[in-house]
Structures are given as structure tokens and as C-alpha cells.
Amino acid sequence: MRRSMYLFIILFNIGAFAFSQKITLNLNGVPLHEALRTISDKANIDFFYSDDTLDINRIVNIEFVDTDVEVIVSNLIGSGFKLEEQSNGLYLIVPVEVQQGRLLSGVVTDEIGQPLPGVTVLVKETKKGVSTDFDGNFKIVVEKGQTIVFSYVGFKTQEVVFENQKSINVKLVEDISALEEVIVTGIVERKKETYTGAVSTFSGEELKAIGNQNIIQSIRTLDPSFIVLENNLQGSNPNVLPNIEVRGQTSITNDDLRDEFGADPNSPLFILDGFETDLRSIVDLDMNRVASITILKDAASTALYGSKAANGVVVVETKRPESGKIILSYTGDFSVDAPDLTDYNLMNASEKLEYERLAGMWTYYIEDYSVQVRLDSLYNQKLADVRRGVDTYWLSEPTRTAITQRHSVYAAGGSDEFRFNAGLNYRDGQGVMKGSGRDTWGANIDLNYRKGKVNISNRFYMDGYTAMESNYGSFSNFARANPYYRKYDENGEITRYLDENGVRTDFVNPLYRTTINSSDETKGIGFRNNLNIIVDLTSRLRLNGGVQLRNETSEREVFIDPEDPVFDDVSFFEKGEYRNTEIDNFSYMANLMLTYRNLFAEKHSVTANLRADVEEQNNESYGTVAVGFPNGTNANPSFSFSYDPNAKPSYSTRKYRRNNIMGLVNYAYDNRYLLDFTYRLDGSTAFGANEKYSPFWSVGLGWNIHKERGVNSSVINLLRLKQTFGYTGNQNLGSVASTSVYAYGSTINEFGAGVGLVTLANPNLEWQRTFDMNLGLDIALFNNRLDGRFNLYRKNTDPLVVPVSLAASTGLTSYPLNVGRLEVKGFEAIVNYKIINDMKNRFMWRLGVTTAIVNMQYDGFGNQLQELDEEAIQSGSLKRYKDGFSPDDIWAVPSLGIDPATGKEVFLQNNGQTSFVHNYDDETVVGNSRPDLEGVISNNFSFKDFTLGINLRYRLGGQQFNNALFNKVENISYSEVGFNQDKRALYDRWQQPGDMAMFKGITETAAVPISSRFVQDENLIIGESVNLGYRASNKKWLDVLGVSTLRFNAYMNNILRASTVLAERGLDYPFARSVSFSINASF
After folding, report:
1. What's the pLDDT tens digit per position in 906-915?
2. Omega of the bond leading into 931 within 30 degrees of 0 (cis)
3. pTM of the prediction?
4. What is the CATH number of domain 4-171?
């Protein structure tokens, strides 16, 4: 028997992993042996066969696109032969016993009838398979009773049992959970294998594995570039939106630039189901509706959104309707939040009284025997109370263990042509401050109709909320209250003042506000309707159009009771205040896109899109203030005596119009060499009339090195190098007038009402443009056991839009100009390693590490922002706007500490000399508030149906200005001595010559200037998320309950915090620690 063998020498042996490769092959009229040789060259494998049994001269015609090698070879050799793996990349082609089967043919399409080329068609029992051709056709030999499996990238796998049908036509359903293979950008979808953009994608299940609070808190744990800045004033207040950054900043944060409808200029753009939305809608969104989240970070991915994308884009996709029988799903989320007060280092009653004695509060400043006798008597009374055990812990009074619950019900189903998805959700959310909370509700109806080449979908959302602020007032009032005072008098009543008979009558009992009728409540309601139509003009051309209508209204009512102590020194007719603010926002957006896809000469894949958008937003606000209310009244404005005599009703309206046209091209050669190009021309009324349009573009280059010959693919599963660069913009500032605006004044005389300039026109104001460069590396090794994504980036925003101070004679404080630039340099990495990956026993342990480094620098300001620097000094701000320095730099005069001999602070001057005199001219950078390194260390375990995840956030390096040291250890005026302070004010202050102390003398009550003494190095560990989960399906006990799938999760969020800096956190509203539970059942 004559045998032939083709042996090709390559740099590395591929081994068992070879047949998991996907190649593209298009051969017409070639002998079988030539086709096998071509596959050998492409896949770096060898075939051994007998040409006595295999007809190697048989002419074959094949066309496969990105298809597994095993499927291609099986299609070539036919069902009479099989492949047997040997070693070192060698495979035998041997005959098999003749089976009694029949030839089955059919067509595979998507849900709208579009043919799908390259679908894998496999007989489950024999593992023999073929692939569909370019028109979706397939032929395969199969026996009765065998199961045919159809699988394709981005679609759900479908199985069909063969019952001697003559043909089978299969429609595959899109699988939105196949996130590792498809990138959802909100405008187009791209195969991850050929996409050059820097993106991160997470499924709804991954988000829910971190916590059930909201998707923002989950994203921050999963992606290192997504930073949620701590709000040290508002803590965990559910009614305050977080400040978010993606890869640093692109704008100066200044309220003078923003109108009342503007957003945080450094916040990313949010896209919900293909249309723009706001941060509040994302925070309130029911997590159970979310299918996926995609973060677009670099120019190649964000340039799709042009002038709005400089801060990154967060794309949220909700679950889509699915065909089949109606499925009912219920999810219950429950959380218990407790205030985190561990960073409050306050004195107890005896410490506070001793501190007051040492500080001289109980010693009269002049020799007056009668006054001193009274002070001694009062001191002794308080001392006696303390010795009797009076030690009030005020911090527990305004706080509570908050219980929050959310209930979600969804139903989905339908036929191949018509599908629906409907849901209701309600959340009763309590805050850890008594009386505070946020209740939300929502409803959605999603309809989808597909017939032939037309696909029509409509998504309708309606939601609302009620937000309540605590009637206990600011939490800081309780942190300042003296512990040697009782909460109630001898009759158990709450008194107005804590020390009505003492030397101080301004110590308001912080509990008193709970006895009056003050309130602060906001209600809102909104709806969105998204209509989308897709028409497949040909097999390569698709037309897509969409329209969104959106309306949101809100009303805030604030009532301050006339008996509130803030009105003690106000006339009777002005006691009490009612404020009402109404906001109405309406917008529409429309888009039209033409898509072309084709594959040329088996290796050249091209996708091109041409899109146009129009948008209009109309925002209105109206506000009134009424003053003077009788005691005992409620928040009824008709009870007021008058409008505020120093103000008048406010009204504001803004209209924004935007349009754009965009073209984008995605090209891949043999899935190895990649190119993405985007060009977008944006028009907007937000900038000057002479600068209505601005171009934005990006270029992305990629190289799939792992697809090159000679690469050992059994070791290197993925090695992709990407370089992108381009321009994006920022419109979060609101609008800038192109014409000057005047308003009538509040006074009038015989000549009429006067007018004043309120807005000075700047028709030449340019758009902020950010040039973004990104170098990325994606890698997966050892059968995907180790994977990582690394990105090095640089962003340069030039020009910035900055408020430059104007002379007082203009009647305006500032004027927006294009001044300076801001450069951001950074690095981010996400690395995962599967320490244990026992699929047979369903046991997995994965260790993950994320990290981010961000550095920023101003330039090009000169002296144009000197006024802003002076304002910062006067307000006590630590930020400065100087060339060559960072927005995160902390500016202060260097301090050498406290002189042991005198107790005075020693300052370091610019000339290197020391001085006891503080001079702002000696200011320099003494720290940087941004960590040198920040990220998350995660451990994820799964065993059978159980999962466990532990996520710890770390922050290394960086400095923090400790406000507790500055305001509650030092800088305590005589009037503030009577309020509670940090323990260090008693134990760590200088008292006598020779003391080695960090802080000035305990009797020092003069104002203390800011210096580097209050800046501390910070290293931090946070227990961000711990979760335990269980999932049950296909269980007999579930069948008895009529449940198909049951999931249970328990979470602990922000349960641990260890910092090298001891400073009070959550000054007006405390931070919270959370323990949560979630249960989901599908019927």
C-alpha cells in the first residue's frame, strides 16, 4: 500500500490546541490534496493518510469564513473518514465504518432571515460537522435520533433532533451574553477579535456578583479606569450623585462655567439602549434589567460620539425580548446599611471638660472675682454630672440601621416574529440618616417585530422617584455637640438649647429640629420611548434608523419651620421659609445609519457605516421663595406673609441643538492586521456662533500576533497589539451665549425699570478638543489560564474653556475664554490567573489584579488665571492653576513643625530660611491628592453551584489634607472651644516649653493658616465587595415548586476600611457599610 505524507517544518508545534483555531478559506476547483496542503500551511499542522482509501485528486470547492479547522477538514474528507490526533501537531485521516444515515440539507439564518455564513453544524453523537456556506446552506450525513448542534459567534447555540426530515431551516437567536466575542458600542457592534479600541465589557451577572446597590458601584470594582471620587461631605447620601472620572480629567471643574442644566465636566457620557441619558437615570436603573455594560475609553472607541466623548463613554444595554414560551421572573433585593463612624475620634465627656479647662474656657480673661466664681460653679456642676456618668453619644441620634428593599417582576416571550418584554420594579430605599431616603419605581414595555428583512423594535420606559432629606439637619451638628450635655431635660423633653442657664446660650440642641415641621422633598417622573427600525436592503447593505422622545419633570419643596433656631435673630414676618423649584426637560433625538459588510478574496473583511444624528433639548426651571409663617404651620405657601423681600421668582430656559454626520470603516486582513477609522463632524449651539461645527476623528491599528505562523498557539492563545489616536470633545459645560443677555433689575423709579448685563457674548468661543493616544496589549496564555489587558495612554485637551475674572465695572464676575491646556498620562492593567481550573469537578479559583496610574498637568495659562488663584487662597482651597502643575496638587506653605521652646510653628521660606511668619508667597506643592497606584485585588471561587468573591481596593501613595486636624485639633477659635473636638486637640498639642508636639499650644485660639503640617501620606485598603452565591437549576425540588432556576446571593460592601490617615468622613451625611441579599426565581 502506497502511503503519502505531507510534513511542513514550522518554528513551533501546535499540538492539541491546533483544531481550536479558526481560519478563513476560499478554494475553487482544486484537488483535495492541495486543499489539505493549504490548511497545513495556514494552521501549522500535518496530515497522515492513505491515498488508497482517500481520493486525494477529488476536485473540491469550499468557502469558509473564520471557521474551526476541524469543521473545515471534516467537510472536505466527508463522513466516511475521521480524524485521529497523534502528537506534535500530527493528525491521521482514517476511514470509518459506513453508517446508515441520510444526507440532510438546510439553511441557517438569523432572526430576520439573513443568511449566516460560517455557522458550525455538528452531529452531537459523532462530533462530525460541517460549516454553512456564504448563503447559509449546509449538507451533513446524520442518522435518525441524532442531535444536530448549530453554533455561531454572537448567537445562542441551538440543538435539533433529526427525525428523517428532508431539510431543516434554523433561525439562530442573538446571544447578548456572548460579550467576550462582540463589542457593543451603542452605535455599532464589532467583533472583539478585529476591534482596535480600548474597551471593557461586563455582563449583568458580573455586575450583580459585586453588589446589588447600583451599577456604578459595581463598575468601579471591575474596571480600574472607572474612578468614583469620595464625597467627604455627603458620604452615602442616596440623593447625591457620585463624581466619576474615566482616565482622569479633561476640564477645569468650576461652577462659574456651568449653567443649571450642565453636568460635571469630567463625567463620562452615558448611553442607554443606543440613546444618550444622564447619570441619575443610570444610578436609579434597576440592575436586574441590565444585560451588559461597555466602557469605551480611547479615541478609536469614543470618537463615535465625537464632541461628547472626551471623558469616556459608558454604554448600558438592557435585556432584549426573546422568543419562546412566556417566562416570568422575580428578583428581590434587600440590604441593611449601617453608618460607618469609625473615623470619628471625638472626645468623651471627661476629656472634653478637661480640654476646655486647659484651653482657658473656664478662666475669665480679666480679674473679676464675681464672674470667676460663677464660672467655677458652672464648671463644678458639669464636672459633677460627668462623674455621675453623663456621657452622651450624639452620633447615634441622627443615624439608623437602614433597610432597603427592591422588587422586580419581568415577563418575556413571543414567537419568532413578535416578542415582548415587560417589567415592573419598585425600590423602597432608606438612608442611614433618619428620615432620609430615595424611593424609585419603574415600568418598561419592549416590543420587537421581525418579518423578512424588516426588524422593528420599540422600548418604552417610565420611572419616577421621591427623594427625602433628613429632618435632623447636618450630621456635623451632632459631631459638634458636647458629650457632657443631656439630650433631654428632667421632664424628658427636648430643649431648644443645651445650656440655657449656662455661659453659652448658642448651643442649639441638634435634636430640636426633629420636633418641628421642616422638610425637604423632591418628586420626579419621566418617560423615554426608543423606536428603532432595521431594513436589510441586500445581503451586504443594512439601513438602520432610530428616534427617541424623552421628558422628565421634577419638583422640589423645601420648608424651614419658623421655630427653627436659624430664625432667632430674624423679624417675626420673615421667620420660616418655603422654596419651590420646578424643572421640565424635553428632548428628541433621531439617527439614520447605512451599513455595508463584505468579504473580498477570502481575506479582506470590510465593514463601513455612514450615520447622521439630530438632537434638540429644551430645559426649563421655575422657582419661588416665600417667607414668614405662623408657628405650627406646614409647608403650604398660602400661609406665608410674603415673597422673599430680597429676591424675586426665578425662571430659566435653555435650548440646545446638535447635529452630526459620521463615517466609520473597519478593515481586517486575514483577521491578523486591523484598521479602524472614524470621522465625525459635530454641530452644536453650546459654543460660539462663529464656531458651530468642529471635526473629530480617530484611527486605530491592530495586529493579532497570535495568528501569525510560527507562534506556539498552545501557549499563546491571544496576543493583540493595538495603537489608536484621534480627537474627541466635551459638551458637559452647558451652553455659552453667542449674544449678550440683559435682565430687568429688581428696582424701579419714575424712569422705569433698569436692566443689567447677566451674560456677555463670546461668539468665537472654541470647542474643547482632546487628542487621545492609546497603546494597548491584550494577552492570553496557557489555554486562557492567564489573561491580561494593558493600556498606556496620553490625553491632551487644548484649548480649555476657563472662566477668566472680569473687572467689577462690567457687572459680571467671569467670562469664558479658551485658555491653556490639560495633559493626562496614565497606565492601566487588568490581569487574571486561574489558579485552579478543574472543569470536571466544577471547581475554579481565579485571582485578579487591576491597577491604574494617572498623572495630570496644566500648561499654557501664563498669568491669565491669577484671579482664580487668589480666590482659591481666600476661600481656603488647596488647588492652583499654574503651568507645569497638576489639578491634584496640594498647595501650602512648607512647615518644619512646632518649635518646642515657644510652641510656635516654623515655616520654610522660598529662600531656604526659616520663619515664624506665614507668607502665601512661600507656597509650594506639598503633596498630590491622587494615589500613585490604585486598583482592586480579587479572589473568585466557584464549586459546583456555589460562588464566592472577595474584592479589596488598594490605594498606595498620594497625600490627603486632613481637615480634622485643621478644624478640630487646631484652628479652634474661642467660640468653637465649647463644641466637641478631636481627641488629638487634648493629647497632642503643645502645653509647655520642651514639649515635642505636632500641634500648637492648647490655649491658642487664633486663626491658623494652612501649611504642610496638615498634609499626610495615605495608604488605604477597602473591603469593597464580598459576595457568596448559589444557583440551582434542573433540580427535582425546583420542579415541585414550579421554578426553573433559583439564584441566591449575599453581599457585604465597604465592610472594611484601613487607612494611614485618621480623618472624619461624611461630615454632613455619614458613609455606610452594607450587607445585602438577593433572590431570583424564574418560572
Report:
1. 999 999 999 9
2. no
3. 0.83
4. 2.60.40.1120
